[in-house]
Specification:
Layout (H helix, E strand, L loop, with lengths): L2 H18 L3 E4 L4 E4 L2 E4 L3 H22 L2 H5 L2 H13 L2 H4 L2 H25 L4 H9 L6 H20 L1 H6 L2 H9 L2 H5 L8 H23 L3 E16 L2 E12 L5 E8 L6 E3 L3 E4 L4 E11 L7 E8 L5 E8 L5
Antiparallel strand pairs: 1-2, 2-3, 4-5, 5-9, 6-8, 6-10, 7-9, 10-11
């Protein structure tokens, strides 16, 4: 197999496999994103930002380093359109207009839903999307987005094809803007001089930072929210404060966490779980109750909630309580 053909087929397959294998996708429904098969909450947005910037710099770099090679070597749309055109312009179909158009429309009808599914899967859980399609669940946004995108890709496949590449593709236009005499010649040497070197250093830096954060992430998320309806309620000699503790295990294994609350005054009463066990990819919710002694009135107290997983990775949350003030 020629290098160009291998590159085209590999990138086309990656377009379908990346969201299915959770190599990279953004789940807009559950407010998660996935990178290299690891799950993250949107609260870890710095990782998502670094990954997106790395991808942006990579695609900018391709144009600066190798010129307009992306279209011919990597673009899934160009690859797919090229193979469809070869089929419909084959010797068997070339002189049979009716059969050629029938097969052309038939292939477009078959492949448009498949491509649309892969596209929507970058922003929605693939298993849930498949279930929505099979059960014809019209109540969610993903089903209707899928239907609209089928129409878009049918138009792209059946009508536009290479016309889109020549006159409409934003990335194609960007390549022309970035192109110069060096990038037009193409070559790895462009990665180590001028603007190409800047892009190379930025790519390495962003990518390294993203990988570091991905593999040092705690693998869980914690949020602590004050319940305003249960703040400052007087119970005998105490003021009651209630907080909602929400934890999410983002790993594919059951996990047990150790919970510690620091800087609690001796005359306060606190109800808090000492250990928490959460199933894989599951969420845990509970209450933290503080009973602040009346002697603490009108003083501000800053406590630290420390949660540690079995690997020793720790996350801390600050809790401020000012007894007597709602």
């Amino acid at each position: 197999m020629k290098k160009r053909t291998l590159s085209q087929v590999s990138v086309l397959l990656l377009f379908f496999l990346v969201p299915m294998l959770d190599l990279f996708r953004i789940d807009l429904t559950h407010l998660h994103f996935y990178v290299l098969r690891r799950s993250f909450a949107f609260s870890e947005g710095l990782i998502l930002l670094l990954v997106i910037l790395t991808l942006v710099i990579f695609f900018l770099g391709i144009s600066k380093w190798f010129g307009r090679q992306f279209c011919g070597w990597m673009c899934p749309h160009n690859t797919f359109s090229g193979y469809l055109t070869k089929i419909t312009n084959s010797k068997t179909l070339k002189n049979n207009k009716g059969l050629r158009e029938t097969i052309d429309i038939g292939l477009s009808v078959i492949f448009s839903p498949i491509i649309a599914f892969a596209f929507v899967a970058y922003f929605y859980n693939p298993q849930e999307l498949l279930n929505d399609i099979v059960t014809f669940n019209t109540g969610g946004w993903a089903f209707w987005a899928y239907i609209l995108i089928i129409g878009f890709f049918f138009l792209m496949i059946n009508r536009l094809r290479h016309k889109f590449c020549r006159s409409t593709c934003p990335y194609g236009m960007l390549q022309m803007i970035l192109s110069d005499k060096n990038s037009q010649k193409g070559g790895f040497h462009n990665m180590f001089k001028g603007v190409g070197l800047v892009l190379t250093l930025a790519l390495v830096g962003m990518g390294a930072a993203a990988l570091y954060l991905i593999y040092t992430s705690t693998g869980y998320s914690v949020s602590v929210a004050k319940n305003k309806d249960a703040a400052g309620i007087i119970i005998q000699d105490f003021y009651l404060y209630e907080y909602d503790l929400t934890m999410e295990n983002l790993t594919p294994d059951q996990e047990t966490y150790t919970v510690t609350l620091k800087n609690v005054p001796d005359n306060w009463e606190v109800t808090i779980p000492e250990t928490i066990t959460i199933d894989a990819n599951s969420t845990y919710k509970n209450k933290i109750l503080f009973k602040a002694h009346k002697s603490s009135l009108n003083n501000n107290y800053i406590m630290v909630l420390e949660i540690k997983n079995s690997d020793g990775k720790t996350m801390e949350k600050q809790i401020n309580i000012f007894p007597g003030r709602k």
